[in-house]
Amino acid sequence: MSNDNKSSCCEGNEVPGDPRTLKSRVLETGASMIQDFTPVKQICAHLNAFHVYASDPTRCVEANHYCTHLTEDVRQCLIYDSPEKNARLIGVEYMISPRIFATLPTEERKLWHTHEFEVKSGMLVMPAPAGVPDAVWEAAETAEMQDVAPLYGKTYHFWQVDRGDPVPMGEPQLMGSFTSNESVEVAHPAGLDSLLEDRNKRFGVDHLQKAKKREGIEPVEKHPDADSMYKST
């Protein structure tokens, strides 16, 4: 069979290549039973939001964060394009406390973004696991959002899935967060409600309801060096 007649994607995503063989599946299953995946097993939170390209604020992409807490001041997250088993790893994000952020050089601080708007608008969510009562999960999520709101994030995406790249191509892209409704409209002129409509349906969430529940989160005193992508554009 010629390559032209073979499957051009892997198990339903848009990654080029043939489906995994039985041999590959058997080897992977055996390895998963024997090897120790300690670093990955430390992931303790799934967050969903959108990242915007620092070099082009008219472009944004959905981001599923799978995060590990290294300390109370430092978190690290793997960024996937979906929560499915064949999701593509598209980037990484580091989150640090204001205390750590203040110690960074000025030029370094310009690479980091804030999270307050994501949190208070309801854009940033923790998708609920099945079987957990809504009231219980909402309380846990709101508490987590209170912790995330003051953190600074530094994010690079390696795979520009929004432009249809079949594999990671080009230089890593510095990403930022939305900081206002106006910044959302630059990337998505129809506005925040429209941007989140499909995401909300898939995860069964209502960002307006979440925004209401988060009104009690204290305002964040943001460092003027953060979110520099908006100052430069």
From TrEMBL:
Q: Where is the composition biased (Polar residues)?
A: 1-10
Q: A Pfam family name for this chain? A: DUF1264
Q: Which InterPro entries match?
A: OBAP-like (IPR010686)
Q: Where is this region: Disordered?
A: 1-22, 208-233
The superkingdom of the source organism is: Eukaryota
Family membership: Belongs to the OBAP family.
Q: What is this protein called?
A: DUF1264 domain-containing protein
Organism whose genome encodes this protein: Penicillium coprophilum
Species classification: Eukaryota, Fungi, Dikarya, Ascomycota, Pezizomycotina
